[in-house]
Amino acid sequence: MSYNITEIDQWAKAFWNENKVYEVTNDTSLPKHYVLDMFPYPSGAGLHVGHPLGYVASDIYARFKKMQGFNVLHPMGFDSFGLPTEQYAIETGIHPADATTKNIETYKKQINNIGYNYDWSREVITSDPKYYKWTQWIFLRLFDSIYCYENQKAYSISVLINHFETHGNHNNTAFTNKEVPPFSAEEWHQFSEKEKNDILMHYRLAYVDYAEVNWCEALGTVLANDEVINGKSERGGHPVVKKTMKQWFLRISAYAQRLLDNLESLEFTESLKEQQRNWIGKSQGALIDFKCNEDTIKVYTTRPDTIFGSTFVVLSPEHPLIEKITSSDFKTEVEAYQNYCKTKSDIDRQAEKKVTGQFTGAYATNPVTLQKIPVYIAEYVLMGYGTGAIMAVPAEDERDFRFAKHFEIPIVEIFDKSQITNPEIGDKKGIYINSDFLNGLEYAEAHTKIINQLIQLQVGEPKTQFRIRDAGFSRQRYWGEPMPILWKDGIAYPLPEDQLPLMNPEVDEILPTEDGSSPLARNQKWVNEIEGYTRETDTMPAFAGSSWYFLRYMDPNNEQHFVDTDLAKYWNQVDVYVGGTEHAVGHLLYSRFFTNFLYDIQLISFYEPFKRLINQGMIQGRSNFVYRSVSNPNHFISKNKITDAQQVTPLHVDVNIVENDVLDTEAFKKWRHEFANATFELEEGQYICGWEVEKMSKSKYNVVNPDHIIAKYGSDCFRMYEMFLGPIELSKPWNTAGIEGVSKFLRKFYHLFFNEAGELKITNDAPQAEELKILHKLLKKVSEDIEQFSFNTSVSAFMIAVNELNQIKCDKKGILEPLCRAIAPFAPHLAEHIWSKINPNPSSIVLASFPKFEAQFLIENEVEYPVSINGKMRLKLKFNTDADPKTIETEVLANETVQKWMEGKPLKKFIFVKGRMINIVI
RNA sequence: GCGGGCGUGGUGAAAUUGGUAGACACGCUAGACUUAGGAUCUAGUGCCUUCGGUAUGGGGGUUCGAGUCCCUCCGCCCGCACCA
Could you tell me which of A550, A588, A737, A784 has the fewest CB atoms within 10 Å of its CB? Predict the structure, then answer.
């Protein structure tokens, strides 16, 4: 036993530390490569077992790129603002800052144990005032900016003020999703300071609004849309209700089109792009006016071509026009129905299977049929989408159809579906009928025609609609960035930049105040610190800091700028970003928004943060079960001894006392008191456990701590086994049993270089062609695999090479030295150790070059062809690489075995694919 | 309901992108060494069988040739959803 894993692990780590091999310089003369991991939230539980997987992959990739001569930026940090730490603080009285420091320490220890090549001198911690100073600064840039939809670009708000001062808001191209009545330049000048600021607030990219927000009572804060899953909070699964509150928002909706368009150029998985497209939710249709007495009901539809089938209009129960249009004899019923809807959440309303609704007594005019059609209100129409009003087309919409049936409203068919197979309500296809000038047409033509007609009649216009809503940016919590805003007479003023960072004040208790304000409001001295102003007490959400952290790594200690322009230009986009899919619409969308914005205001020279994204799958747990007899609760039956007659209860058993599904019965008895006197029904002397793949969790006793694996097998083995498990993007169960294969491989690898006594045994003899072939076959495979993040296959390639070299007892330095460099990205500790022994006075192998694959060593002068008869492989024949196809054909057909299989039948066709195969068709 | 992905031995998985299915491992079986083996090494291991047949969720198709392409059905996973 001469391969002393622990010793080598510790020695290598110390060596790297002492020589600072992972420090990255801003040497702009070298080609750059930026490899990034999604930084973790440092929870008290320690590093999650799923994390190392992606980190190992990016680490291998980063090391490889470095060995290829790139200047590689591969940093790590912590996303350390957030709710769990605050909850922990409330429970324990420990200040979140202290808990955070401690958790980060634990995380770092675990991370370093695995041997990643992070440059810790560039560490970014979002809750560090030196960092969040710039988060606050970027927030102020957003506050100070508006978006011009014509130029698709953000500008300083001074541009808009200028426009207002000279033109009022005529020909104003600043994006807003609010109603702003027209005003002239003169009127603008007459407005009070407050009025002016209220108007400007409708355009700012960071703005305050009174709006319905997702309020989570249990967490005491509002949540962003992406933090709400099926009406429950993402963290903790608490109920979330709608509540109208004063809130900060980011006007991400201004960037909807760009965020959508830019997706094309990104190397993200199709499913991830699809998720973002869904979230942005672009739809194209028309706004159509339905006159209702002197009022106009604006309706949004994606299918204006179906308007001839619209026989009623439905408003959302919250629609502002309802009060005006409801006829007096329906007032009571309408109010009753509105009250009924108020008691239900959006989720409940959408889940309602019953048809409900109420006639308002009012009639609207269908602008093309000119028929009077009834106006209803119904819970299935939501105020939050489109205009909160629909033109119902019962013949072509399932819900409208059921509604019409229920209330006995006429249904007008608008499609001749005789040519459609399996026609259904809602197909919206066929030849138009009952549609006046659209009759006989098909969709494309009808669509253009109706739009033109609506424009001509001045009752409608084409309209593009986005589902994405502005991002709620306020949290009524303590552990987040304080908003650098001062209030005076209802006007929000930016905190002067020289007062950044604005730090979290000390408070007596980390709890919201009685009026629902954040804990920051408990410190009234802080709130009123600046004469004549009060401070904003909301804090920013967790995504604030994580939306731009990748920029800070480039220049982490800059105190003058959030990042130096030239350095940002050099390091540029993240070339490869590795992380889980859970951030598909949250973090990844916000980061893209921030980066596009910072590009617009010319602070950085690229607009998409992440060029290529690799999603890592989850590592699941592999649970083990014992089977307790129902009739005798102290008796456990081995898995294959259970008969139908025996009733058993499966119980989770700690996977650490099970090996290859065989239970250590003695350890089991000691595991928990109640099992001390357990008896077993064994099979062949063993107790066999059942197993199942489940989420890794403490309660299922299937958690495997990476620290334990590393203590037993070493960092290199852990790294390689994680990769060997399967493709990086796949979710798969962790099964410690399989690690032996990798462990054996590493020992074999070690013993290519050293004998049993640990003495170097390599020679300087010239490598043989066969050996060179093994090496270069490996180099080809590994270099290609690394680029594609296919690490499971490169690990097998190493195994194959080592097996082959072992077979021929290769001891040539000319082969083994490059082999050592090739494995360095995967098993850096062992490689460093070997490197130090085979090179006198070596610098680190981290700085060595990756051996280059040379095709010349793979040239074969003979190819072994599989010979198939009618597509079935029957034998193999060797031929010279450049043998003439005609010669091959003659020789193959003359072959005895071939003749036997041809059974004397005539040859129909002879297929020869050079270098691949031969097929004989008879 | 719509969209996307997937389905290969007892297990994790390979398959040069249409060309020898199951590489590499785990597990299992047998043997060697050994006081011992949960160490190490050797051989075997998809299934059925004597030649051989048959196999990539089921069925069909294209092709000289299909795990790979097309159609269809089944199953699993993910995302979206009374979205107007």
Answer: A737
What separation in angstroms does the CA of A544 have from each of A100, A290, A395, A505, A727? 17, 43, 47, 19, 32
Residues lying close to strand B (Cβ under 7 A), chosen from 730-759 of chain A, are: 730, 732-733, 735, 737-738, 740-742, 744-745, 748
CB of A386 under 7 A from strand B? yes
Sign of the Cα pseudo-torsion (A632, A633, A639, A643, in order): positive
Q: What is the DSSP string of A824-839?
A: TTTSHHHHHHHHHHHS
Indicate if CB(A886) is under 7 A from strand B: no
3-class DSSP assignment, residue A306: helix
Instruction: Give pLDDT tens digits for A493-517.
Output: 999 999 989 999 999 888 888 777 8
CB atoms within 10 A of CB A38: 23
- Assess: ipTM above 0.85: yes
Q: Which of residues 389-418 of A touch strand B (CB under 7 A)?
A: 390-391, 398-399
pLDDT tens digits along A62-88: 999 999 999 999 999 999 998 889 888
Percentage of residues in chain A having pLDDT higher than 90: 51
A234 CB less than 7 Å from any atom of strand B: no
How many angstroms is C1' of B39 away from CA of A744? 11
First and final C-alpha spacing in chain A: 60
Of all nucleotides, the one whose C1′ comes closest to residue A876's CA is B20
Any strand B atom closer than 7 Å to A503 CB:
no
Copy the structure tokens of residue A481.
């960035």
Q: What is the mean pLDDT of residues A529-534?
A: 94
Q: Please name the nucleotide lying closest to A662, CA to C1'.
A: B38
Confidence band, pLDDT 50/70/90 cuts, at residue A346:
low
Tell if A871 CB is < 7 Å from nucleic strand B: yes
Instruction: Give alpha helix (H) positions in A391-442.
Output: 398-407
Question: Could you give the domains of chain A?
Answer: 41-121+543-615 (3.40.50.620), 140-275+470-535 (no CATH), 282-466 (3.90.740.10), 620-703 (no CATH), 708-848 (1.10.730.10), 860-921 (3.10.20.590)
| Cα–Cα distance, A861 to A332 (Å, whole number) | 94
| Residues forming beta bridges with residue A679, ordered by sequence position | A635
Q: Is the CB of A283 under 7 A from strand B?
A: yes
Amino acid at A822: A
**Continuous H helices in A754-812:** 769-787, 791-807
User: Which nucleotides in chain B have some atom under 7 angstroms from a protein Cβ?
Assistant: 3-5, 11-16, 19-21, 23-28, 38-41, 53, 64-66, 78-84
Cα distance between residue A22 and residue A835, in whole Å: 17
CB count in 10 Å sphere of residue A875: 17
Q: How far from chain centre, in Å, is Cα A367?
A: 45
Which residues have a Cβ under 8 Å from the Cβ of A15 and sit 6 or more positions away? A832, A836, A844
Give the whole-angstrom CA distance, residue A850 versus residue A684: 52
Protein CA at A872 to nucleotide C1' at B51, angstroms: 17
Using one digit for the tens of pLDDT, what is the confidence trace for A147-181? 999 999 999 999 999 999 999 999 999 999 888 89
Q: Rounded to the nearest 5°, which phi and psi values hold at A283?
A: -135, 145
Q: What are the structure tokens assigned to A551, written together?
A: 């920029």
The pLDDT value recorded for residue A347 is: 66
At A644-684, the pLDDT tens digits run 777 888 888 888 888 777 888 888 988 888 888 889 888 77
Q: Which residue has the tokens 């830019």?
A: A262
CB proximity list for A799: less than 8 A, separation 6 or greater: A741, A745
**How many Å apart are CA A79 and CA A40, to the nearest integer?**
6
A778-834 pLDDT per residue, tens: 999 999 999 999 999 999 999 999 999 998 889 999 999 999 999 999 999 999 999
